[in-house]
Design goal:
By secondary structure, the chain is α+β, with helices and mostly antiparallel strands. About 25% of the residues lie in helices and about 35% in strands. The protein contains three helices and seven strands; from the N terminus they run ββββαβββαα. The strands form two sheets. The chain has a four-stranded mixed β-sheet with strand order 4-1-6-5, sandwiched between helices. A hairpin with a 5-residue loop joins strand 2 and strand 3. The protein is globular, with a radius of gyration of 15 Å.
């Protein structure tokens, strides 16, 4: 095979969906762009634990990480490979305490949140909301799989 494998930084983002289908978006301090909260996985770190750590660091929230809903790969303008995994997370709309990486956070209805996001992040929000609706239809969204309350800090 002659293909060159992608050498990439791995990032994870949480699509935090509330029972009333609001999604948390954060505004980067570096360039004013909007994104889903999350970040890079540390070496030898469990994927889910890395996402939980990043969500706590960036927002002070502790939503329930449910499942991955989308992935995307690309090469940025500096020719660096990127691999992103987006997770559906259940949480409750509550005040956010931001890290210095972000200036603003907003809980937006899903459709309004996607107006601020890149195409891959929009696709992830749509996939997460679809998964959320299926869970609600099955009656499982009201009962998180972990023992802690949705969106409550440990």
């Amino acid at each position: 095979m002659t293909d060159t494998p992608l050498r990439a930084t791995v990032t994870q983002r949480g699509v935090v969906v509330t029972p009333d289908e609001h999604v948390l978006v954060v505004q980067r301090a570096s360039d004013g762009g909007w994104e889903l909260p999350g970040g890079r996985v540390d070496r030898r770190e469990d994927a889910t634990a890395g996402l939980v750590r990043e969500l706590r660091e960036e927002t002070s929230l502790d939503p329930e990480v449910v499942a991955p809903v989308d992935t995307v790969t690309w090469v940025n303008d500096d020719d660096n490979g990127r691999f992103a995994v987006y997770y559906y997370c259940r949480g409750s709309r509550q005040p956010v305490s931001l890290s210095p990486e972000h200036d603003t956070a907003a809980w937006r209805p899903a459709a309004a949140a996607t107006e601020r996001l890149s195409d891959p992040q929009t696709a992830a929000v749509e996939a997460a909301v679809t998964r959320h609706r299926r869970a609600v239809d099955r009656g499982s969204a009201a009962a998180p799989s972990s023992g802690r309350e949705r969106g409550e800090r440990s």
